[in-house]
Amino acid sequence: MNVVSFARALIDIDSTTGCEAAAGAWLAAELEALGYRVARQPVGDGRYNVLATLDAPCVVFSTHYDCVPPFFPSRLSDGRLYGRGACDAKGILAAQVAAAERLRAQGERRAGLLFVVGEERGSDGAAVANAAACDSRYLINGEPTDSRVASATRGVLRVRLRASGRAAHSAAPEAGISAIEKLIDALVRLRALPLPADPELGATSYSIGLIEGGVAPNVIPPHASAEVMFRTVGDHEAVLAALRPISDLVAVSEVLTVPAVRFRVPAGLDVDAAVFPFTTDVPFLDRWGTPLLFGPGSFLVAHTADEHVAIAELEAGVDVYERLARWCLAKLG
Q1: Measured between alpha carbons, how far apart are the two ends of the chain, in Å?
Q2: Of the residues 101, 108, 119, 307, which is catalytic?
């Protein structure tokens, strides 16, 4: 199969998270046309994961086919494939299908394909897939890793900080308590707090993604909140403990927790290994076997208006996926 053509066809279907139905229908039909047994795992609102198998799979390639907004279609330029999902993760999906097809052409029918929805927002597709796991022994997950095998990925702790105040007329600010000022003070204090570190994964990092507050320009704000995303390197409880010095200013509540993961790195494949600061669906797919993580493309251009993958790297990724699968199968004897 032509990996670029397959990737472009999928990229050109808008599958922004929550709106994956059309892409799922196309993907299931294409895999059925190739001769796979296809199971559709309902996730809700017409969305579903796609599981494609030949014989009972011992090794499963997996990635997601939902994308962040905004959608934009594919194009080719200067040896690169551009488009939403080019590297995260529709190009990867195409490379995994191409690798499975190579294996099948050589008589190997124990490789399956699992493509899920919802990775970009809460991993609801992965949770459904995990509840319906088969007896696979290895899961080869795909995310853009610059064509390196991951040795570890950071986790996520997303928290909401809520500040409470007292409303008052802005002409008499002393009569109220500004929740926005309390929130600002907490965020400034956060900058100076020591956060956990790990010798391999490095230091915990964070970003402030959302801030809300106030009711009107001429009212002392009675409420304000912020959402903070921590990229964790160990137990998330250690991060929560580090936030205690701001608890007099804001209430801290957990929104999402994803653990850090340490991966097995196959030997003898002539592929570099690296640690990555992002998280994946892997923690939610722990019933699918020992996980490995690899993918062509860079996460630094994922989610951007310039999202792309080099065509040569995408094609080389097919080779690596095939070699990873053969390494896994060899371990099974």
Answers
A1: 29
A2: 119
